[in-house]
User: Fold this.
Amino acid sequence: MSSPKKAPILRGAGWMPEASYNFIAICYQTFRFASNQLWGYDRPMKIVHVFVAAMIMSLLPTMFQPASAVSPSRAQAQTESRSWLIRLIPPRPTFAEDATPAEQAVMQQHFAYWKGLNEKGICVFGGPVLDPRGAYGILVVRANSLGEARALAEGDPSVKNGLNKIEVGEMRVAFEPVHHT
Assistant:
């Protein structure tokens, strides 16, 4: 019996990651070994090789999709930016209950501003915290730096108007809201 042939060398070609090469090489070697043990190296073995090659080729498009193919804006935001917590501090503890019509109008602009950033994937989530000692706002945003996060917070119409104050700090998000109503 002749010595077994080695798996084709695919490494270094630049067309697939090392881990994927290892997966394909292991599949190839496993099926080759099984075929050799069962049928010897003859016509059935060649059929198995063709079958395994066809299976691997059919899986390649799903195995090597770049993250950006799934959701370009989200993939870019996750790889290039960090998460920041913005705390909006209202002018008084009773603000949620006794805001004037003018303050309510500014808060509607505030809501539209953050909703727009949420739709762009910049603002992860946000909303009021109804603390009995006084309500305040919380937002989590993606930004490359503290300065960029602070600029987002300072762009809020309620902050520009002097109605709310801000505190900004880096946050490590362990998981994002998925199913929240």
Remarks:
- The first helix runs from residue 18 to 39.
